[in-house]
Please model this.
Amino acid sequence: QFLFGLYIMSQYLRIKNNPHAFVQPRTFIIGGKAAPGYYTAKLIIKFLNNVSEIINQDKVVREKIRLVFLENYRVSLAERIMPAAELSEQISTAGMEASGTGNMKFMLNGALTIGTYDGANIEMSEQLEGKNIFIFGLRANEVADIRGKGYDPRSAIKSSAMLREIFRMLENDFFSPGQPGLFDPLLDTIYRGDFFMVCADFESYLETQDVISQA
Model:
């Protein structure tokens, strides 16, 4: 979900930097974060809601993108969301948190899928012969290989102009005005190793999202 949040920030920046550039209008819907006793999860929820507030307060941006965090995600909400969704985000790090049945429920209700090559995404991709599913990012063996050689998230950030700008905003408390340092623990999690390789997958994710927007 933090990777998804970074993508939403990238779209915010694209609109602000060039209001006349093409941005496919989207409503980003996020839910299902199990937060009790899980500090990082709570902080990500706070981060996403702060991003949403800034988007919704900006007249130019809110006409093209919106972000909604659904409270208490449950079956009754899923019954409404899954038939309505146009794009299913199945973006866990390959080899670490395989997608289960949710991605298939979205697919069977007509949604396109963007995902890593992991879990049920693999079988879906094979059955669909690559159609209506958009695979991005590192494969599980590549994740293990990079981790074995020594992964440097700061290098991945440095090589991406968009990530550099996003992390500069986070460091400068752009999304936490009046609460300096609020999201420093999230930054520390990335800088001290980026265990889920969010930065390593970001550029591939961004490029694949652009392909989907054009489609």
